[in-house]
Amino acid sequence: MQGKKFISPGAWFSMSYPSDWNEFEDGEGSFLFYNPDVWTGNFRISAFKGKAGYGRDAIRQELKENDSASLVQVGAWECAYSKEMFQEEGTYYTSHLWITGVDDIAFECSFTVPKGGVVKEAEEVIATLEIRKEGQKYPAELIPVRLSEIYLINEGYEWVVSTVKQELKKDFQGIEEDLEKLQQVIDSGKIGAKKKEEWLAIGITVCAILTNEVEGMEWKTLIDGNREAPVVQYNDRIIDPMKIAWSKVKAGEPCNVIEEYKSVIINH
């Protein structure tokens, strides 16, 4: 399937999903995707880890306990599949459920569609499911920014906004002129050299200003070994918030966010 790629937090599994779907907030451990412009159904996926053989056991158990479940093949995956109708505010929906798994991982996938809606999209997504093996080295990948990184971006940015307000009694609007305020906070020595999270927040905020000011700069999630972090992509360039501030401070070098910002702008 040509589309977007999702790699789960912790990089347990990956899958591809249609390019017109986005990720939306859901319960913990469950990932929700749908098309926000033309709703064709809600696709949810949860993954669970157990002992060896847990994946196959989950399928067997579902077939045993759910009378309406039958064994189907979706791509290379054997699934226990069932569906049920329900009504909400006068509208009928069908919820399709697939339980599948292999080795020590089980998946629960559901696709809730309007009555009569097709399930082909969901089956195509399930067919792309891949388990990423622990201890295996995978090449670094850039995927559409996940909700888990959007939370990090927002958290870092909010911290900078409140710190600038507290220290300088000034507003911070996420525009180029705000870099001077940020530099004032850095120069005041308020942020200790060991405060990794706070230096990361500064790097994230510089990147947020770049995405506000320069068309075509886009947040992505970088998956590289154990590192899962937000970065900005511009054409074929990657701007890494970690390198803007924290890498410099850690190496004992001065951090000048105005210069860092300018060097990105000049090179773009």
Write the topology of this structure.
Elements lengths: L3 E4 L5 E5 L4 E3 L5 E5 L7 E8 L4 H12 L4 E5 L2 E12 L2 E12 L2 E10 L5 H8 L2 E2 L9 E4 L2 H22 L9 H10 L8 H18 L4 E7 L2 E8 L2 E3 L1 H4 L1 H5 L6 H11 L1
Antiparallel strand pairs: 1-2, 2-10, 3-4, 4-5, 5-9, 6-7, 7-8, 8-9, 11-12, 12-13, 13-14
Helix pairs in contact: 3-4, 3-5
Structure report:
Helix 3 packs across helix 5. The protein has 8 helices and 14 strands. The mean pLDDT is 93. It is 34% helix and 33% strand. It has 268 residues and is an alpha+beta fold. A 7-stranded antiparallel sheet has the order 3-4-5-9-8-7-6.
Keywords:
alpha+beta, about 270 residues, elongated, four-stranded antiparallel beta sheet, 8 helices
How would you briefly describe this protein structure?
InterPro entries: DUF3805, DUF3806. About 35% of the residues lie in helices and about 35% in strands. By secondary structure, it is of the alpha+beta class.
What best-fitting shape do the alpha-carbon axes yield?
elongated
The helix/strand order is EEEEEHEEEEHEEHHHEEEHHH
Number of strands: 14
Q: What value does the average pLDDT take?
A: 93
- How many whole angstroms does the radius of gyration measure? 22 Å
Low-confidence stretches: none
Structural class by helix and strand composition: alpha+beta
Estimated helix fraction: 25-40%
Separation of the first and last Cα atoms: 32 Å
Widest sheet, order of strands: 3-4-5-9-8-7-6
Pfam families: DUF3805, DUF3806
Protein name: DUF3805 domain-containing protein
Domain DUF3805: 4-154
Domain DUF3806: 178-261
